[in-house]
Amino acid sequence: MPLHLLHLLLLLQLLITLVNAGELSCQPVSGCRCDGSGFQLDISGLFSYPLTITAGVQNFSFSPCAGLKCTGSQLAAMCQIYSSTSLNCCGKTSSSVWSVNSLDPLSFVVTYNGGDPVATTGINRYSVVTFTATTDPNTKLSYGSYGGPSTPSYTFTVQGQAVASARVQSEDLRGIVGIVLICLVIGGVIAYLIGGSTLLYSRGARGQEMIPHVRFWKDVPFLIKDGIRFTIIHGRKINKAAKYTDLLFKVKVSRDLYHWSIDI
Question: I need a surface site. Which of 28, 91, 138, 177 has the fewest CB within 10 A?
């Protein structure tokens, strides 16, 4: 493959990798919504908030959108309740961090930071809520575990069909990534043709010889044809007892600089 084409393919692969990485980032707008590249995540419709979560002798109240008056002036997204006089803020609505694992099936994590500090360590409590879309028609929020005074995290899981509805497609951003990639590819091809033709013209080439790597492009249909034949040959079901070494004697592959051929 010509060196210029290899560089172009590597650049395209890098752009695709960067775009895919950007697609899964989601900036928080509130405790119940974030904006990503071409999509939004909104959990406001999953439950009727505030939602009470029972976990043994303690309860939690979850209200990521409007928040709760738990122990201070800041609105809590998660409030731990032992009694009417024993409350702990386990994360604020204004301190959410969103992490998207997958868009299909939808899976993401929301961390609510900035809760009340633990008396023995002074480390602020925080809650980690993992949302996963499943086939279960009943969407449930369950308590997981507590990390302890040195890592005062409260983990929760939300699973069910309704989680998939948390993803909202952004109409204004739909298709922009694809358009950008198409424009980059077209621009790269044009630059390749114009730059290559100009260079070859300056070296005395005329007519078809001004096309960069013209011999390679003329051979592309034959390369595709031979590639298809080679794939079909290896995809055939021969005898189950036949070994791969037997096939090597039936297929003879030869090539020169610009052309591959397969003889059966």
Answer: 138
